[in-house]
Write a structure and sequence with these properties.
single chain, alpha/beta, TIM Barrel, 8-stranded parallel beta barrel, 3-stranded antiparallel sheet, 13 helices, about 40% helix, globular, binds flavin mononucleotide, oxidoreductase, Dihydroorotate_DH_cat
Length: about 350
């Protein structure tokens, strides 16, 4: 058991989940201001090994394990998070204007399944504030995840949505190593299905082309098992050469094919989408289909239930270029990153595979 699991988690889990998250983030931000703390964290949590090095959408990364969007929405803790052993960080989702998100409570733990139910509705401080914070130095590549401003009074309509993404892109891309577009925040009630009409995706990408996309662009898709839809999405991306890859978002609500041990009726009371092990198989099935469509033409970033080296390895074998995690950190703390990376090395050795690049 790590120090986090034995001493920190019990204290944090006494607090409301969002409060605990804010506290963790504030502590990381504070720790990140101190050279001493950053160096100590770097020594404790980093594992470097050439067999883990790879590239993500053309960016060299020290390992394929990244921090998923949502943990540090406003880039408050980039300096500290860069010392926790991740190969890259994805901050956001950030929108053009600041947003308060959904009413509280909007974050819940499901400890029986080591899961989180999230209904944040993308609260964030807006692109300009985040831009200022991203001037700070960083140790690993930082992707910035963009979303349309969540404003229930101004639900998604055509050009307004495209202008919102374009404004964020213009404000943030020169401070980002890659840009991810969150195309389906499962918790922005008015907006979550906007891109179901795929002509809108084409229109969005055309608008961003006018704004000049100067960083690798990753499309974080609403999850679907429909191979036809995935093929259409990839065909649209093919028409916009600045698209470098895809990621898969959480599904909205609690689809029947998520894997729970906890009783479903207790879950249905919690509003929001599920992160953590219950979504692992669901996301992996989509990842496999997406890989069969894209081949090696696109980077694939896969998150969903990565809490062990085996889970990360499975995603890499299915074709992920990089894997990300969020919920695992809540249950296992920062030592999880190194634990997964050393587990990945052991799995490569077991299978006689030279390095992670040979997996996807
Ligand atoms: C509390 C929470 C907040 C999240 N916020 C965002 C977000 O703002 N933007 C986004 O693209 N994904 C967001 N996600 C999704 C994660 O980036 C990730 O895709 C998902 O949680 C699956 O990984 P996990 O099972 O390791 O948590 C969020 C997830 C959680 C649990």
């Amino acid at each position: 058991m790590s120090v986090y699991e034995s001493a920190v988690r019990p204290l944090l889990f006494r607090l409301d989940a969002e409060r605990a998250h804010n506290l963790t983030l504030a502590a990381s931000e504070l720790g990140g201001r101190s050279d001493f703390v950053r160096r100590a964290a770097g020594r404790a949590f980093t594992l470097r090994d050439p067999r883990l090095e790879t590239t993500l959408a053309g960016l060299p990364v020290p390992n394929p394990l990244g921090l998923a969007a949502g943990f540090d929405k406003n880039a408050r803790a980039v300096r500290m998070l860069g010392n926790l052993g991740f190969g890259h960080l994805e901050i956001g989702s950030v929108s053009a204007d600041a947003s308060d998100g959904n009413p509280k409570p909007r974050l819940f733990r499901v400890p029986q399944d080591e899961a989180i139910v999230v209904a944040y509705g993308v609260p964030n401080e807006g692109a300009q504030v985040v831009r200022e914070r991203l001037a700070a130095p960083r140790r690993v590549p930082v992707g910035v995840n963009l979303v349309k401003t969540n404003d229930p009074a101004r639900p998604a309509t055509g050009p307004e949505v495209y202008e919102d993404y374009a404004a964020s892109l213009v404000a943030l891309q020169d401070r980002a190593d890659y840009i991810a577009l969150n195309l389906s925040c499962p918790n922005s009630a008015a907006d979550k299905d906007f891109f179901d009409d795929l002509t809108r995706l084409d229109e969005l990408l055309a608008r961003l082309a006018q704004a000049e996309v100067r960083r690798p662009l990753i499309l974080k898709l609403k999850p679907t098992r429909d191979a036809g839809v995935l093929r259409e999405i990839v065909a649209i991306a093919d028409g916009h050469p600045f698209v470098s890859g895809f990621a898969i978002n959480l599904p909205s609500g609690k689809p029947a094919d998520l894997r729970f041990t906890v009783a479903r009726d207790s879950l249905e009371k919690l509003p929001g989408a599920v992160g953590g092990p219950p979504v692992e198989d669901f996301v992996n099935a989509i990842l496999g289909t997406l890989k069969s469509i894209t081949g090696d033409r696109y980077a694939l970033i896969a998150a969903g239930g990565v809490t062990t080296a085996e889970a990360a390895y499975t995603k890499l074998q299915l074709g992920a270029t990089a894997v990300q995690l969020y919920t695992g950190l809540v249950y296992h703390g920062p030592a999880l990153v190194k634990q997964i990376l050393s587990g990945l090395l052991a799995l490569l050795e077991r299978d006689g595979i030279a390095d992670v690049r040979a997996l996807s």
